[in-house]
């Protein structure tokens, strides 16, 4: 489990390609302070397991399904990546619940500066768009962000100067691809409302939907 608060930006040092999988070696510092073999580290929003490490780098395996479902397939030597260690049980919770399981890839269709902030409009597939809610949360390349607008098949996020400087999202331009993880609570709620495979689930889903509508959470 992660929070979407990026700890540092790492850099891809080596990419070893197998038949379908890849092995990434990443230069880092902060996330290595208390690292152990088998620890989980989020790389651009993808939860990966540490298989080797030193004082200045760590190695992770990326399986075929993860490669297909994320932008890790686009990385090259020298690429900058967002890094975050799994949340400690006694740590502060600063962002939102992020699992590190990417739901899909979004495409930046516009980047606009307004004052000291940058607004990004990101297009996603229709099945992801239904989880986007005004003022709701979304993970973009592992960064916890707030949705400021939702229209058609796109949503808009805003980056403050700190986020621009300390995450790779600030590097992104129009046409770039980003990893998207929808809000976990929204996905669970959607599953509860639509799952009819379990006896009694239909009635419970209807009651839950009525309750949410009463409080303005659904149309």
Describe the structure.
The chain is an alpha+beta fold and 219 residues long. It is built from five helices and twelve strands. It has a six-stranded antiparallel β-barrel. It has a six-stranded antiparallel beta barrel with strand order 7-8-11-10-9-12. Residues 196-205 have low confidence and may be disordered.
Break the fold down into its secondary structure elements and pairings:
Blueprint: E1 8-17, E2 22-27, E3 40-43, E4 46-53, E5 57-62, H1 64-69, E6 80-85, E7 104-114, E8 117-123, H2 126-129, E9 137-140, E10 143-151, E11 154-159, H3 161-166, E12 177-182, H4 184-194, H5 201-214
Antiparallel strand pairs: 1-2, 1-6, 2-5, 3-4, 3-6, 4-5, 7-8, 7-12, 8-11, 9-10, 9-12, 10-11
- Counted by DSSP, the helix tally is 5
Largest sheet: 6 strands, antiparallel, barrel
Structural class of the helices, strands and pairings?
A: alpha+beta
Q: Strand share of the residues?
A: 35-45%
Helix content: 10-25%
> Total strand count, please?
12
**What is the 3D shape?**
globular
Give the strand line-up of the largest sheet.
Answer: 1-2-5-4-3-6
Order of helices and strands: EEEEEHEEEHEEEHEHH
Radius of gyration computed on alpha carbons: 18 Å
Low-confidence stretches: 196-205
**Would you tell me the overall average pLDDT?**
88
End-to-end C-alpha gap? 30 Å
């Amino acid at each position: 489990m992660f929070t979407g608060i990026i700890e540092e930006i790492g850099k891809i040092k080596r990419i070893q390609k197998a038949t379908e999988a890849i092995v990434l070696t990443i230069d880092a510092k902060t996330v290595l302070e208390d690292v152990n073999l088998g620890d989980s580290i989020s790389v651009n929003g993808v939860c990966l397991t540490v298989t080797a490490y030193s004082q200045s780098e760590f190695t992770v395996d990326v399986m075929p399904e993860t490669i297909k479902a994320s932008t890790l397939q686009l990385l090259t030597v020298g690429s900058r990546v967002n890094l975050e260690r799994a949340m400690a049980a006694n740590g502060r919770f600063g962002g939102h619940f992020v699992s590190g399981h990417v739901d899909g890839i979004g495409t930046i269709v516009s980047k606009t500066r307004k004052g000291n902030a940058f607004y990004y409009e990101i297009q996603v597939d229709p099945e992801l768009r239904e989880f986007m809610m005004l003022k709701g949360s979304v993970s973009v390349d592992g960064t916890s962000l707030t949705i400021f607008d939702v229209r058609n098949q796109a949503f808009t996020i805003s980056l403050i100067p700190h986020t621009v400087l300390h995450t790779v999202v600030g590097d992104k331009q129009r046409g770039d691809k980003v990893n998207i993880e929808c809000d976990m609570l929204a996905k669970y709620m959607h599953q509860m409302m639509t799952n009819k495979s379990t006896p009694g689930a239909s009635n419970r889903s209807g009651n839950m939907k009525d309750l949410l509508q009463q409080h303005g959470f659904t149309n």
